[in-house]
Amino acid sequence: MCALESGATGVVGLLLETEVVDVDPTSPTQRPLLQQAIEADHIDTIERLLRDLRLDISCRWDYNSPLLASIRAGRDPVTLFVLSHGGLNDTRTPSGESALLLATREGSLAVVKEILKDDKVDVKSIDHQGWNALRWVAREREMEMVRVLLANPRTDFHSVDSDGQSALTVAEDYGQCKMAVLLNQHVERTETRLPPDDSGTLK
């Protein structure tokens, strides 16, 4: 639909009111309307689409969804909008990447922070290579994103892939010296931390 790509929200609204527009086409040559609007970066048009009861921000199209489409397109403002309207679900890419993994690989710090606010998100999820979010950012030198992940209590720093690689060994193998130092410092802090007593407080 040309109106979607041009951001003509008023025209989109008029077309939707005719109720003859297929809002979620299954044809392999035509992308769903939400996906088109997301890729075109038109939040006003997306908002108008979502007022149509036939559309659902948490829907999925095979290995895609509004959230994955916006992350993949690098549209952080749109992605944050989708998240704020309940667009987070467990849809994965053909490579097995969750929204968190994809946002991590795309380097979307604001999106990663927002996704981690949901306690139900599986921070330990892995892709088809057995890599989790922490290993990805350790390889890519995303220092601030590593700090965000390490600050989350659900992140498993010691987890390894099928080759026995942890985030630390990945950083070392890829020559990410500053990253390796940061990860080592995290190990030292966690290993020197005293265990809690029976009341749950640190001794």
TrEMBL record:
Q: Does the keyword Lyase apply?
A: no
Instruction: Specify the superkingdom.
Output: Eukaryota
- InterPro entries this protein is in? Ankyrin_rpt (IPR002110), Ankyrin_rpt-contain_sf (IPR036770)
UniProt entry keywords in alphabetical sequence = ANK repeat, Repeat
User: Does Repeat show up as a keyword for this record?
Assistant: yes
Matching entries from Pfam families are given as:
Ank_2
PANTHER family this protein is in?
A: ANKYRIN REPEAT AND PROTEIN KINASE DOMAIN-CONTAINING PROTEIN, ANKYRIN REPEAT-CONTAINING PROTEIN-RELATED
Q: What is this protein called?
A: Ankyrin repeat-containing domain protein
